[in-house]
Design a protein that fits this description.
By secondary structure, the chain is of the alpha+beta class. The chain has a single domain, classed as TATA-Binding Protein, CATH 3.30.310. Helices cover about 40% and strands about 25% of the residues. It has a five-stranded antiparallel beta sheet. It starts with a strand and ends in a 5-residue tail after the last helix.
């Protein structure tokens, strides 16, 4: 995937969702929003869609530093993490590539912040297992 990082697990959706939420908090991210896309699509369009949740994860310290360097950085915040069911027992979890996302600003002063976010998001995903 060119714009994100993720993995697929032999674990039911609800379990991965709970584990991801906890892993984000343990890695210092606040979850600014949690969108149940399945419920939204059902309510707005009357269509069925597999379980799919989008987390808006944000590190307050990194966001603050980034906004001081680039006030319009808020257009790229927070960092999205998605969890979706592939089947009853298989779930994907993926996170945005923060380095690539911040690179579109052209501001070299944001490279370290992007690298930190990227590293922490990888830890979140890598810490999720099939166990």
């Amino acid at each position: 995937m060119r714009y994100g990082y993720g993995r697929s697990l032999e674990v039911p959706f609800a379990t991965v969702l709970d584990r991801t939420r906890l892993a984000l908090l343990n890695e210092g991210f606040g979850v600014l929003y949690e969108i149940d896309l399945r419920a939204k699509l059902r309510a707005e369009l009357g269509v069925e869609f597999p379980p799919y949740v989008i987390f808006g994860a944000c590190s307050p310290q990194v966001a603050h530093h980034g906004l001081l360097e680039e006030i319009d950085l808020g257009l790229l915040l927070p960092s999205n993490v998605v969890v979706y069911a592939e089947s009853d027992q298989r779930t994907s979890v993926k996170a945005i590539d923060a380095v690539q996302m911040f690179a579109i600003t052209g501001n070299a002063k944001l490279e370290a912040a992007a690298g930190e976010i990227e590293e922490r998001l990888h830890k979140v995903i890598d810490g999720l297992t099939d166990q």
